[in-house]
């Protein structure tokens, strides 16, 4: 154990010293849940909070990867360092990223100040996982100025990006009537910025018009949402977070042609305006509280699930419990209560008298 802790401490030290090899190794620790990864993330936590975390989501084919590539290129031209995490679909066999080997950052290949990592969604709701959040922390602690998280683009489940990013940009391709309907199902509420990419194609003007109408309807509704965190949807229980919840951020629509590099400067300026607004309004602090509350809840659920799985295995496995229910010797509620009893009523310390 001491050797393991020593290795973690050395890895943290090298990462904080700016060694890219250590950063890559740390993210591998995190993604593979290697022994000591929690200690690693805990050590890095106090060094986080300096990077701007930007989420890029939207429907497949909207041009997310091309846009992220151009964003990284412009940031580098400005002298800023960049970390990119691209969430790919999971292989049903290996659990790894199906598209993990593809070339996606063509314009920044060889630039050590652009760190790119493709990660597996691992079937997690929204295409994100605890590993993604922890990898963002590693990039932040390393000192990256901008961290971009590009999601799978699987529809309504993409709302999970709000648990990681400060600013969420939702890409919508032109003439995407079906995509607009999909946005109404949930994506609309998480967008801080809408990006109509491939704006040189037919239908772009109509898409912009439809988005404006949707934004107007949202803002004139009975309970307007305040950006992508407006409804306190991050946490599962009612938590009283201080701060003004009334938003004065009007979701802008930016048109880009990422393939040609058009509109990128305007898009990045809009992102910066949102970052500034988060700081000035206090909303950024409030959202950070929400994210930490959501993260703690998620970690509790994961750990409790592991404890229950352990106890279930010790009790003969799920099949044995199912047979008891089938034979009317028990029922699902009783089985659940029995498995959770040790957690609800932890054993008292043994009496040594």
What does the secondary structure layout of this molecule look like, with pairings?
Elements lengths: L1 H15 L3 H12 L5 H9 L6 E7 L5 H14 L4 E7 L25 E7 L9 H13 L3 E5 L16 E6 L4 H8 L8 E4 L7 H16 L33 E3 L8 H18 L1 H32 L3 H9 L5 H13 L9
Question: In brief, what are we looking at here?
Answer:
By secondary structure, the protein is an alpha/beta fold.
Highlighted features:
single chain, 353 residues, alpha/beta, Rossmann fold, 2 domains, 7-stranded parallel sheet, 7 strands, 45% helix, globular
The name CATH uses for the topology of the largest domain is Rossmann fold
**Total number of helices:** 11
CATH homologous superfamily of the largest domain, by name?
Answer: P-loop containing nucleotide triphosphate hydrolases
What's the CATH first level of the largest domain? Answer: Alpha Beta
Mean pLDDT, all residues = 81
Characterise the protein shown here.
There is one protein chain. The protein is of the alpha/beta class and 353 residues long. It has two domains: 1-47, no CATH class; 48-281, P-loop containing nucleotide triphosphate hydrolases (Rossmann fold), CATH 3.40.50. 45% of the residues lie in helices and 11% in strands. The longest helix is centred in the C-terminal third of the chain and has 32 residues, at 283-314. Mean pLDDT is 81; it is low at 91-103, 241-246 and 348-353.
């Amino acid at each position: 154990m001491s050797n393991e802790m020593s290795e973690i401490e050395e890895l943290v030290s090298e990462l904080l010293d700016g060694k890219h090899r250590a950063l890559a190794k740390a993210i591998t620790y995190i993604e593979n849940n290697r022994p000591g990864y929690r200690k690693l993330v805990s050590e890095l936590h106090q060094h986080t909070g300096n990077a701007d975390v930007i989420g890029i989501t939207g429907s497949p084919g909207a041009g997310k990867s091309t846009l992220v590539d151009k964003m990284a290129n412009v940031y580098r031209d400005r002298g800023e360092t960049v970390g990119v995490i691209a969430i790919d679909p999971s292989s049903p066999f290996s659990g790894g990223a199906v598209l993990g080997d593809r070339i996606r950052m063509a314009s920044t290949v060889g630039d050590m100040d652009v760190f790119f990592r493709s990660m597996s969604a691992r079937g997690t709701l929204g295409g994100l996982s605890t590993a993604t959040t922890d990898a963002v922390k590693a990039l932040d602690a390393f000192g990256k100025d901008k961290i971009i998280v590009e999601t799978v683009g699987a529809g309504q489940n993409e709302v999970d990006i709000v648990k990681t990013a400060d600013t969420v940009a939702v890409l919508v391709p032109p003439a995407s009537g079906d995509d607009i309907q999909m946005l109404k199902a949930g994506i609309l509420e998480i967008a801080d910025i809408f990006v109509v990419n491939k704006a040189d194609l037919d239908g772009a003007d109509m898409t912009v018009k439809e988005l404006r109408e949707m934004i107007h309807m949202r803002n004139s509704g009975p309970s307007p949402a305040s950006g992508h965190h407006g409804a306190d949807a991050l946490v599962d229980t009612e938590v009283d977070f201080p701060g003004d919840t009334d938003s004065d951020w009007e979701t802008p629509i930016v048109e880009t042609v990422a393939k040609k590099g058009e509109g990128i400067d305007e898009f990045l300026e809009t992102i910066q305006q949102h970052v500034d607004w988060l700081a000035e309004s206090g909303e950024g602090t409030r959202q950070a509280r929400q994210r930490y509350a959501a993260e703690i809840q998620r970690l509790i659920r994961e750990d409790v699930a592991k404890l229950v799985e352990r106890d279930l295995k010790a009790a003969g496995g799920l099949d044995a419990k199912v047979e008891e229910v089938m034979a009317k010797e028990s029922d699902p509620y009783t089985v659940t209560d029995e498995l959770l009893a040790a957690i609800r009523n932890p054993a008292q310390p043994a009496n040594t008298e």
